[in-house]
Amino acid sequence: MTEDPTTGTYTAAGSASWDRMYYLFEVEVFARFSGEVETFMVTDPYSLSLSMDSRRSQIVNLDDGDLRPSGWKKLRKPALRAPEDIAIYELHVRDFSIHDESVPDTLKGTFGAFAIKRTHGIRHLRRLSRSGLSHVHLLPAFDCATIPEDRSTHADPGDLSVYAPNGEEQQAAVDAIRDQDGFNWCYDPFHYTVPEGSYATDADGPARILEFRKMVAGLNRLGLRTVMDVVYNHTSGSQGGDKSVLDKVVPGYYHRLNDAGYIETSTCCANTATEHYMMEKLMLDSLRVWAEDYKVDGFRFDLMGHHTKANIENARDMLQSLILEDNGVDGEAIYLYGEGWNFGEVANDARFEQATQANMGRQTGV
C-alpha cells in the first residue's frame, strides 16, 4: 500500500480479479501498551465481509447482483405518518426462530428465518403489525466477538425442563457450554459494519450480506421497519489481543484513555473515544452503510451517554441528508434513540457534553 503524503491515506490499486478475495493488513506501529514497535496482522476496521470467525476481511462490492434480493433496489417501506406513531418490539435474531419447529433446521436462528412465509414467528409478527406494531428492534446483529460462527459445532444444554424449577442444575448445564453454544446478546463488537456470521447459513463470505437484506425485505413485507441496536461505545478487544482491531491499527487512538494512559473500561469493555475525529468518522461511515446499503430504518445507540452530544447530532444530520433519488433511502424517516445514561469517566460532562437524556432533550430532535 502507498501513503499519500498530503492526506496520510494508504491505498492499493488492484484488479477486478481481487473480488471476493480475503486479506489482512500487515501494520508496523509503536504500541504504547507494550512499549515496542509491533508488527500486527489485522483485519480491516472498515470490513464489509469476513471469513468465518472474522479471521480475514473480504473484498466485496455491495452492489453486486448476487448480493441483492429480488426487488431490492425498489424495496418499498411501510407507511409511517409521524414518529409519534412508532411502536417498537425488541427481538433477538437467533431467539426468533431457533426453537420454531415450522422453520427448516438450516434456517433456525438465522436472518433467513425472517424471509420465510407462514412460520409461527412470521404469523406472530404479522398479527402484531396488524395491531399497530411499526418497528422491530433487533438486538445487535453486526459481527460480534464471542459467538462461534461454525453453527455445526454449537453445543446445546439439553432439555432443562427436567430439572426442578428452583434447582441449580439449569444454570450449571448452561454454564458448562456457554463458550460453545450459539447464544449471546452480541453487545461485544468485533467489526461494526458486517452482519454477524453465526446468523447466516454460511459464515464464510457474503451469504450474510444477502440474508440480512432478505430479512429487512421480509420484515418490510409484513409492514414492519427494522431498527438496529448499535454499540459504537466500546469494542470487545483491544491492545494486542486476538479480538483487537482498532488498537492494532492505531494504538491508543480509537480508545478513551485515563490519565495514566490505560484504556477506560466503565462500559465493562474497552471504551471507544468517539470524541476523536476518526472514531466518529468510523461510526458515521458505518451507520451510512447500514442505512444506505441495508436499508435499516432506525438505530438504537447502546450507552449513548458515552458518546458526545455532537456525535449523535452529526449522525442525525448525516442520515437525514440521505435522499431516495441519490441514496435509495429516505433519511428523514430514519429514527434514532438511545440509552442516555450518565456514568463512568464521562459522567456529568467531565470529558465533553454527553449524549445523556438531559442533554439530548435540549432541541436536538433525537
Brief characterization of the structure:
The protein is α/β, with parallel strands linked by helices. Helix content is 22%, strand content 16%.
The percent range for helix content is: 10-25%
Beta strand count = 15
Structural class: alpha/beta
Form type: globular
Number of domains: 1
CATH class: Alpha Beta
Low-confidence stretches: none
First-to-last CA distance? 40 Å
Architecture, CATH level 2?
Answer: Alpha-Beta Barrel
Mean pLDDT: 96
Radius of gyration: 21 Å
Quick one: CATH superfamily? Glycosidases
Q: Would you tell me which CATH topology applies?
A: TIM Barrel
What's the order of the H and E elements? EEEEEEEHHEEHEHEEHEHEHHEH
Number of alpha- plus pi-helical segments: 9
Task: Please give the largest β-sheet.
Answer: 5 strands, parallel
Strand order of the largest sheet: 7-8-11-14-15
Beta-strand residue fraction: 15-25%
